[in-house]
């Protein structure tokens, strides 16, 4: 069942999305070699609470963190830990913030210091594939058109798409219908229409698309241990137009100044 949002609810979605984006903007300041992922998680939790939000991931079906931590071969749903970031790592931070009853969901994959050309290309392509999905997310078209756009963009460039995890609708709950796979056929699935809030989140592997879930029951990594990247935005369909409610501007503003 897809919950269509009223204009009043859309205003609340906007605010939740702004807070999740500001949270990842704050995280951008802290990512560097030597920092533990546990420390990043603590900073994120305090930032969200200080700004009147609630960290939706924390305690969700027993998940132990505010942030999902995705270092190198971790695809999604890694736990914060005493792992210390190293120069050359990539780290995806995926988090959901609830504000006044509505959720915003966002993910960004960051470079830790200098990273290899290969990892840079993987991250760039994954981010671009998110925007290819957004371009295809046009009212009147179908979810399959979005899925196909993401898949085609990545596979043409030699990367593979994780199939077991999908994007999703969002609102009062962090996961609502519809499911938004990152692969599939054009012209299938629900029609995109006013009132929908949707999360598009490509998870893209450098090697094969196969994944394994670790014994903790959550951490999803590539089977071949090659790197994986992940970017996510929350979108809304309002007055016949698609609006991206989250933004990478806060993050990219920090990254721009960080190395000068
Ligand atoms: N953006 C992630 C997702 O859509 C958030 C997961 S939160 C967790 O799956 F608690 F489930 F880890
Ligand atoms: Co999501």
Helix content: 25-40%
Bound ligands, each once: 2-amino-4-trifluoromethylsulfanyl-butyric acid, cobalt (II) ion
What percent strand? 25-35%
First and last CA, distance: 49 Å
- Name the CATH superfamily assignment: Creatinase/methionine aminopeptidase superfamily
The general outline is globular
- Helical region count? 5
Q: Order of strands across the widest beta sheet?
A: 8-7-9-14-15
Q: Which CATH class applies here?
A: Alpha Beta
Report the biggest beta sheet as strand number plus sense, adding barrel if it closes: 5 strands, antiparallel
The unreliable regions are none
| Integer average pLDDT | 98
Q: For the CA atoms, what is the radius of gyration?
A: 17 Å
How many domains would you count in the coordinates? 1
Element pattern in H and E: HHEEEEEHHEEEEEEEEEEH
* Strand runs, count: 15
The CATH architecture can be named as Alpha-Beta Complex
Defining key terms:
Creatine Amidinohydrolase, binds 2-amino-4-trifluoromethylsulfanyl-butyric acid, 32% helix, 5 helices, four-stranded antiparallel β-sheet, alpha+beta, 260 residues, binds cobalt (II) ion, 15 strands
Structure described in brief:
It is built from five helices and 15 strands.
Report what the structure shows.
Helix content is 32%, strand content 25%. It is α+β, with helices and mostly antiparallel strands and 260 residues long. The protein has a single domain, classed as Alpha-Beta Complex (Creatine Amidinohydrolase). A 5-stranded antiparallel beta sheet has the order 8-7-9-14-15. Strands 1, 2, 4 and 5 form a 4-stranded antiparallel beta sheet that branches. The model has no long low-confidence stretch (mean pLDDT 98). The structure holds 2-amino-4-trifluoromethylsulfanyl-butyric acid and cobalt (II) ion. 2-amino-4-trifluoromethylsulfanyl-butyric acid is lined by residues 57, 60, 63, 68, 77, 94, 96, 105, 168, 232.
């Amino acid at each position: 069942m897809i919950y269509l949002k009223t204009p009043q609810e859309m205003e609340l979605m906007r605010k939740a999305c702004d807070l999740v984006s500001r949270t990842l903007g704050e995280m951008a300041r802290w990512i560097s070699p030597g920092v533990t992922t546990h420390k990043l998680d603590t900073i994120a939790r305090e930032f969200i609470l200080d700004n009147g939000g609630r960290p939706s991931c924390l305690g969700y079906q027993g998940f132990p963190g505010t942030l999902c931590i995705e270092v190198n071969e971790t695809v999604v749903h890694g736990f914060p830990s005493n792992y210390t970031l190293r120069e050359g790592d990539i780290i995806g931070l995926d988090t959901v913030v609830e504000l006044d009853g509505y959720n915003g969901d966002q993910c960004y994959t960051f470079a830790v210091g200098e990273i290899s050309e290969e990892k840079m290309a993987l991250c760039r392509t994954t981010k671009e594939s998110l925007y290819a999905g957004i371009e295809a997310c046009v009212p009147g078209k179908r979810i399959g058109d979005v899925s196909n756009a993401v898949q085609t963009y990545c596979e043409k460039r030699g990367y593979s798409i994780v199939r077991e995890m999908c994007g999703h609708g969002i609102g009062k709950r962090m996961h609502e219908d519809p499911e938004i796979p990152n692969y599939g056929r054009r012209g299938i699935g629900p029609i995109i229409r006013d009132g929908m809030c949707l999360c598009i989140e490509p998870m893209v592997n450098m090697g094969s698309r196969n994944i394994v879930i670790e014994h903790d029951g959550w951490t999803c990594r590539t089977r071949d241990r090659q790197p994986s990247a992940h970017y996510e935005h929350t979108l809304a369909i309002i007055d016949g137009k698609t609006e991206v409610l989250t933004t990478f501007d806060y993050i990219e503003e920090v990254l721009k100044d960080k190395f000068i």
